[in-house]
Specification:
The protein contains 23 helices and 18 strands.
């Protein structure tokens, strides 16, 4: 079977029906430095750059820098930066599949093996953008980084050396500053990256002129990204390659939905005209409303619904959405309790919520509930608790189903035994591994060990658990009525079972 590379792309090879192949884009100049060569960036940023190039709106390619010693750069270079992207999901309730060969990436660099090639990019006047996705822990100051390391270990360390080399090469030219858009899933990611760079500049005793150049002539933009990317479709790859007619080691898969919110000056939108290409990219002066909408509706719906669904005996998000009881439970949480708790334009919230529900029903993505349960306590604090508090503030009463979701979360840790850094827990369907911060697991194991299951002991347990400010960020016993209602729901779950309790709550059929 032929291998996907530029020779195949420029040959008379007969590609499979329905596969979009755009030729001629592989000769464009390099304009983007990308930290990360993994599935998400290739299915999100690189796909968007490809769409811009097809319409003649950008005319540039990406240099992908491998941020850690092990990665995909060698395979990427073997395939001349080419890979097949499968986007699959529901549109208006109907399954849709799109296939395309993406040619936005020109080459990859492993800075651990070829540091000079990395520095050479800083001398290229055409490269004016930086994007990154180096995990949530990637944007951190590392006091062990030094400017003479080849390379520094951290992403900010590598970027600081790059920017300083560029500053010196172009003699501080204001026009050679970069537009830097991190995609890491942390709040105010651009601000945090800028702060880390400046902290390194101080630590390394770099010049005030360089620090002023960083502050005045480089744009560090906060951004919010949204697309589920499932990556290499290992279970399907043989059938997919048989249909394509060629071998591709970098086949990537994701959902149809995409959203990129970028907080930055309007004039920068002209330099990255995503909207002109019909992409769902929003440039804004304040991304706070969009972050609130995503965290509270998309992430909040997951976090609020999954504990109940998992203890009910379900295993995946689509299974939950198709279930008569749990599907209604999720929809009610979003429409009746989360949306009314958010002080934003209602139609914007409803439209986003409708898209979220359709995404949850995507038949091509098997999103396991157990993976969503990872670090549930901190997720609940960030994603669900604000909706509970704001709903009560708006209506004068607690939201029934969101309060129930807190009780369901507490029930997940019941009968758990901490083993190392994990907890071995139980549900009706059998044992499972619960992953959370070790102090959290130990705390729940200790508190559950003293709970006898009586109404009085459950009330005491709930009060003690909700008082833990290290978990919730506040003493939740101070939220009027929350302790009593949570304890009541928890007692029902323990004595009647999750199935009976959630069925009564939702009013659906078992």
């Amino acid at each position: 079977m032929s291998r996907l590379d530029k020779n195949l792309l420029n040959s008379d090879f007969r590609f499979s029906e329905g596969l979009v192949v755009t030729k001629g884009l592989e000769k464009l100049p390099e304009r983007v430095l990308q930290f990360g060569e993994g599935n998400f960036l290739r299915a999100f940023v690189d796909w968007m750059i490809h769409q811009l190039n097809k319409q003649g709106e950008f005319n540039g390619r990406v240099v992908a820098v491998q941020p850690i010693p092990e990665g995909l750069v060698d395979v990427l270079n073997e395939q001349d930066g080419l890979y097949t992207l499968l986007l699959r999901g529901l549109q208006d309730g109907k399954p849709v599949e799109q296939q395309e060969v993406i040619s936005a990436v020109g080459r990859g660099i492993n800075p651990y093996r070829d540091w000079q090639a990395y520095l050479d990019c800083a001398e290229n006047p055409d490269i004016e953008f930086v994007v990154s996705n180096t995990t949530e822990a990637g944007i951190t100051f590392d006091k062990n980084d030094r400017p003479d390391m080849q390379p520094p270990q951290s992403f900010p360390g590598k970027l600081a050396v790059y920017l300083h080399h560029r500053f010196e090469h172009f003699k501080g030219d204001p026009a050679k500053g970069m537009v830097i858009i991190p995609c890491e899933l942390i709040d105010r990611n651009g601000d945090k990256l800028k702060a880390a760079i400046l902290q390194l500049a101080d630590e390394w005793q770099l010049s005030d002129a360089f620090k002023n150049w960083i502050i005045s002539h480089n744009h560090f933009l906060n951004s919010l990204v949204d697309r589920v990317v499932t990556g290499y479709p290992r279970d399907e790859v043989q059938s997919i390659e048989a249909k394509l007619g060629y071998q591709d080691k970098l086949i990537n898969a994701g959902e149809l939905f995409h959203l990129w919110v970028i907080e930055g000056p309007a004039e920068l939108e002209e330099r990255l005209p995503f909207a002109k290409a019909g992409l769902n990219v929003i440039w804004t002066k304040d991304m706070t409303p969009y972050r609130t909408r995503k965290v509270r509706i998309l992430n909040g719906a997951h976090t609020a619904s999954v504990p109940a669904a998992f203890l009910y005996g379900l295993d995946a998000v689509k299974e939950m959405m198709d279930h008569a009881v749990l599907g209604k439970y999720v929809r009610d949480i979003v429409s009746e309790e989360i949306i009314p708790s958010i002080d934003l334009e209602k139609q914007m919230l409803v439209d986003f919520a409708d898209a979220v529900i359709e995404r949850f029903r995507n038949p091509f993505i098997k999103h396991y509930l157990l993976s969503i349960l990872l670090n549930s306590s901190s997720k609940f604090t960030a994603r669900v608790l604000p909706s509970i508090v704001e709903y009560q503030k708006h209506t004068g009463k607690l939201p029934e189903k969101l309060t129930f979701s807190l009780a369901a979360l507490l029930a997940v840790y019941k009968d758990g035994v901490v083993e190392g850094s994990n907890m071995l827990a139980r549900r009706t369907a059998g044992e499972f591994i619960m992953k959370d911060d070790v102090p959290v697991l130990q705390f729940f194991a200790e508190k559950w060990s003293t709970c006898e299951g009586t109404k009085e002991s459950v009330a005491v347990f709930t009060q003690e658990v909700l008082a833990n400010e290290a978990i919730w960020g506040q003493n939740l016993n101070q939220v009027s009525g929350l302790t009593e209602k949570t304890a009541d729901y928890l007692y029902q779950i323990i004595n009647d079972g999750m199935r009976s309790t959630v069925q009564k709550l939702v009013g659906g059929k078992l």
